[in-house]
């Protein structure tokens, strides 16, 4: 068994012991199913609790299944990203702070194995979470509103997962170069939301941006096809992920462990 | 046989030169103590030898060859060992063993052996979070030994422990030194005197004294007089510094320590003076300088 | 103007309630078994019990010590 496997298994065991493997997916499922439920019952909810004046006619078009799922992804894009980043912020920084990263690296472990095992652990929890949450959301949407074509669901979740992989890779990077967990979360969130905002404002000029993936996800849901420039965005996103990983490994090598 | 040799090893952090080009070697099978005050560069030196820290310049030879990655041959116990506190003691040892390239089965067997040896068998299934300081230090020792390293490096292994824990760890080190070469740092002279064969005294990033404990003691040993007066005798003490037999005078209140170049003549001269001047002495004692005196001298110089 | 009990679509709502309960219980178990939390334990127990969904999440992110 390679040291990478030992380290990856440790990551997974840790997530089981601290319940991360349970609570993060549950939160995503809840975020995912509350959207279709609230869309479906919105008229009744307003009717019952809204206190609208008598005689108000509710002109509320029932949203399509695609609309609901897009709303779900938009929730994942805000709250979901926030939770993922917060749950991953200490991935390297906390181990450097406690000194246990040094205890690992005094064994003949390649620096790349350490970082890549962390990355694989983050990928595992992120993808499990996204797939389960989105599947639950899809199930509720077909139950309450209408069934959305499975192929669109599948393609959209794949594209969206690239964006989330980018987000957690960035979290890993900042967790490697910075020390305070809070600072890691703050900077990562700042960069991620900043990139999203700039991408949606500049639109055409930002087709390469990883944040463009979220827009392609929406288009796949609505039309079955990603928007133009998908390939460019896809390739640059993968390239950025690789570069950020390599940078993380190189910087980790330079960091003083066991202070 | 020479196990490890450091040539012009240096490390700077920005403008501070933590270690300034030191040379030394470690013989196989010896127990070597790296002595020095806090901030002398002990930890930096150990970390460079262990491969955790890249030297700014200089090289390290291991068994006569230029070393690339020594971590496989080295067991390291940091000053403040850290663990995954959610693991049990045994889990951590197996984990550490596998990282050191043992397979799972070997790691399990070796872990049990070491748990027994460091006296943690009863606590092996408990979470490390609940371990005491002494237990953590012993677990740290076990993880350093897990892959049967050629060289065991311990950074201040007993400084943070209470007298009982200190005794336990020192006794374990005495056992381990029968099998493995040990290099440990300390600022406590007594520990160095107690178990080391060789000593390296490091101060301000440079090696001040090195050699086997016996030869260093022999070489730097000087006769010394301890005199205690009824009242202060500062005037006379000032005057004796000019005597050729006196090399150093250290006054502490009514007590004085006089380091001599020659015991026989020095004692004569000083005693004569005391009698002539009718100095009121309470105590007059002759002895030899200890490692502590040498250490203080080196550090103050 | 009341929604009667049998109008509530239990088939859709029940799983949500169950998941929230699991989340809350997991957080409680974690909090109680933890040697030390960031901040007083009793406060976290209150947060987990009385702030639905967000309470357990905040506990897991902020209350647990990372080691």
From TrEMBL, chain A:
It comes from the Bacteria. The keyword Transmembrane helix applies. GO terms for cellular component: plasma membrane. GO terms for molecular function: ABC-type transporter activity. The keyword Cell cycle does not apply. This is ABC transporter permease subunit. Pfam families: ABC2_membrane_2. The chain crosses the membrane at residues 21-42, 76-94, 115-137, 157-177, 184-203, 230-252. Keywords: Membrane, Transmembrane, Transmembrane helix.
From TrEMBL, chain B:
Keywords: ATP-binding, Nucleotide-binding, Transport. This is ABC transporter ATP-binding protein. SMART domains: AAA. Residues 4-229 form the ABC transporter domain. It comes from Gracilibacillus oryzae. PANTHER family: ABC TRANSPORTER RELATED, ABC TRANSPORTER, ATP-BINDING PROTEIN. Belongs to the ABC transporter superfamily. GO terms for molecular function: ATP binding; ATP hydrolysis activity. It comes from the Bacteria.
UniProtKB/TrEMBL annotation, chain C:
GO terms for cellular component: plasma membrane. InterPro entries: CLS_N (IPR027379). It is found in: Cell membrane. It is a multi-pass membrane protein. Its main location: membrane. Residues 22-64 form the Cardiolipin synthase N-terminal domain. The keyword Hydrolase does not apply. This is PLDc_N domain-containing protein. Pfam families: PLDc_N. The chain crosses the membrane at residues 12-32, 44-62. Keywords: Cell membrane, Membrane, Transmembrane, Transmembrane helix.
């Amino acid at each position: 068994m390679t040291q990478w496997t030992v380290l990856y298994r440790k990551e997974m065991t840790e997530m089981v012991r601290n319940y991360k493997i349970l609570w993060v997916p549950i939160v995503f499922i809840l975020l995912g199913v509350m959207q279709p439920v609230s869309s479906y019952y919105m008229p009744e909810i307003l009717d019952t609790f809204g206190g609208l004046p008598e005689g108000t006619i509710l002109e509320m078009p029932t949203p399509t299944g695609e609309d609901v799922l897009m709303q779900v992804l938009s929730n994942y894009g805000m709250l979901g990203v926030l939770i993922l980043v917060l749950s991953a912020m200490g991935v390297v920084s906390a181990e450097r702070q406690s000194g246990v990263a040094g205890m690992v690296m005094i064994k003949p472990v390649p620096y790349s194995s350490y970082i890549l095992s962390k990355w694989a652990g983050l990928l595992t929890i992120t993808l499990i979470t996204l797939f389960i949450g989105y599947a639950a959301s899809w199930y509720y949407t077909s139950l309450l509103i209408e069934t959305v074509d499975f192929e669109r669901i599948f393609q959209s979740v794949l594209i969206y997962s690239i964006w989330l992989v980018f987000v957690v890779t960035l979290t890993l990077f900042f967790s490697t170069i910075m020390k305070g967990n809070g600072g890691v979360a703050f900077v990562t969130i700042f960069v991620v939301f900043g990139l999203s905002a700039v991408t949606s404002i500049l639109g055409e000029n930002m087709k390469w941006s990883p944040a463009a993936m979220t827009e392609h996800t929406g288009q796949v849901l609505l039309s079955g096809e990603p928007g133009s420039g998908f390939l460019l965005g896809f390739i640059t996103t993968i390239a950025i992920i690789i570069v950020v990983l390599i940078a993380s490994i190189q910087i980790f090598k330079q960091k003083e462990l066991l202070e | 046989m020479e196990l490890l040799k450091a040539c012009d090893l240096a490390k700077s952090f920005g403008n501070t030169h933590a270690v300034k080009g030191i040379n030394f070697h470690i013989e196989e099978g010896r127990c070597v103590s790296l002595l020095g005050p806090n901030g002398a560069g002990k930890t930096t030196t150990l970390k460079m030898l262990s491969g955790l820290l890249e030297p700014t310049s200089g090289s390290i030879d291991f068994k006569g060859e230029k070393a690339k990655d020594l971590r496989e041959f080295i067991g390291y116990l940091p000053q403040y060992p850290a663990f995954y506190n959610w693991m049990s003691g045994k889990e951590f040892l197996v984990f550490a063993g596998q990282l050191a390239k043992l397979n799972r089965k070997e790691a399990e067997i070796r872990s049990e052996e070491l748990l027994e040896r460091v006296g943690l068998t009863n606590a092996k299934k408990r979470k490390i979070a609940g371990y005491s300081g002494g237990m953590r230090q012993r677990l740290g020792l076990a993880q350093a030994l897990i892959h049967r390293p050629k060289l065991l490096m311990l950074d201040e292994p007993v400084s943070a422990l209470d007298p009982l824990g200190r005794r336990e760890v020192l006794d374990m080190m005495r056992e381990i030194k029968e099998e493995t070469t040990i290099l440990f740092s300390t600022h406590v002279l007594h520990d160095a005197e107690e178990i080391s064969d060789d000593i390296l005294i490091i101060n301000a990033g440079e090696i001040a004294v090195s050699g086997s404990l016996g030869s260093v003691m022999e070489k730097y040993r000087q006769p010394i007089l301890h005199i205690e007066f009824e009242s202060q005798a500062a005037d006379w003490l000032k005057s004796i510094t000019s005597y050729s037999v006196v090399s150093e005078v250290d006054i502490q209140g009514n007590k004085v320590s006089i380091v001599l170049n020659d015991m026989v003549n020095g004692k004569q001269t000083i005693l004569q003076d005391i009698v002539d001047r009718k100095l009121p002495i309470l105590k007059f004692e002759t002895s030899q300088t200890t490692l502590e005196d040498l250490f203080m001298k080196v550090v103050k110089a | 103007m009341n929604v009667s009990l049998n109008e509530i679509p239990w088939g859709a709502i029940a799983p949500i309630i169950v998941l929230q309960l699991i989340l809350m219980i997991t957080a409680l178990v974690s909090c109680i078994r933890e040697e030390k939390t960031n901040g007083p334990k009793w406060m976290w127990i209150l947060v987990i019990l009385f702030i639905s969904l967000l309470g357990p999440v905040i506990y897991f992110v902020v209350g647990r010590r990372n080691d």
